[in-house]
Amino acid sequence: QVQLVESGGGLVQPGGSLRLSCAASGTILSIGAMGWYRQAPGKQRELVAAITPGGSTNYVDSVKGRFTISRDNAKNTVYLQMNSLKPEDTAVYYCNAAIMVSVVRGPYAYWGQGTQVTVSS
Question: Which pLDDT band, with edges at 50, 70 and 90, does 79 fall under?
Answer without folding.
Answer: very high
